[in-house]
Specification:
By secondary structure, the protein is of the alpha/beta class. The protein has 16 helices and eleven strands. The structure holds flavin mononucleotide (FMN).
Length: about 325
Amino acid sequence: MGERTVDLRTILDGLRVPVVGAPMAGAAGGRLAAAITAAGGLGLIGVGNVATVEQVREQCGLARAAGQRVGIGLMCWSLPQNPALLDAALEAEPVVVSLSFGDPRPYLEKVHDAGAAVVAQVGTRTEALDALDAGVDGLVVRGSEGGGHGRGVVSTLPLLQQVLDLTDRPVLVGGGVATARGLAAVLAAGASAAWVGTPFAASAESIFRPELKEAVIAADTDQTVYTRAFDIAQRFDWPEIYGGRALANAFSDRWAQRTDALAEAVTDEMTETIKQARVDADLSMAPVYAGESAGLVDRARTAAEVLADFEPFREHLRAAQRWLD
Ligand SMILES: Cc1cc2nc3c(=O)[nH]c(=O)nc-3n(C[C@H](O)[C@H](O)[C@H](O)COP(=O)(O)O)c2cc1C
């Protein structure tokens, strides 16, 4: 195994606010990642299954131009289709690389050799054990309430309690952590940092179109849906165990509970309609990936304001200290 120049625990303990900006394809580019780091957290750039090397270089260039260290998140299941994405990501000298949604083993040594720490998002106890066995430096417990893709089977708090008892390696926690109260809760449980997506997707520096940000801000906690319908319609070959949590809309109302029928019914025209809806920001048809915490995001903020709103976590931890007296 290669030499690591960075230690994950040292990085996380060194953050002013223990918040990592989750990698989010289509939302977290270099500008957002750099803004999160500049404000005292650590931002990750999201590299999706349809990303190009040029896009990765462009986004990493934005973070570099801002003079901020960042991390990068890749999708293991789609890397064999375009292995050059990993090389392009490593050229940017990320401090942390997330190898999620698939087996990290083929890529671990290369990432370590490049001097980055590796984390993997896990959605079940079995996935956690497997990632630990593979040799990741830390785990991201990612509950089913989280936005975007992931497992839809276990929610954040039960999974967190289970996984914290499995390992001494740093455990980050994603899925529904969106306020100072939530951050205090997971830190008190033993997590090293929160892994926050949805609130940053709606922030000023996110690549999300303005209409999408407004939709996340307007949504309540009960207005998202976990489904494979959008991927089936776009003919993305995500492994079946990964769905995505998005804002419910007319398309998901029709198909989310009928994905087998959708797989039969999908046509080129439907695929084109959904892809065009994304281009046009037609919110009745396009997926707007966001988690239940969309209901906790109620105004337009910069990434620095999102970080600042997490800061009172210290007061909540102090309040809980009364149980020690
Ligand atoms: C818009 C959006 C895009 C996402 N894209 C990715 C991605 O490209 N790679 C990844 O590992 N996770 C991705 N995720 C999942 C996040 O890493 C994280 O698990 C999730 O946002 C945490 O839950 P939260 O949204 O409740 O904060 C995405 C999430 C959102 C909301």
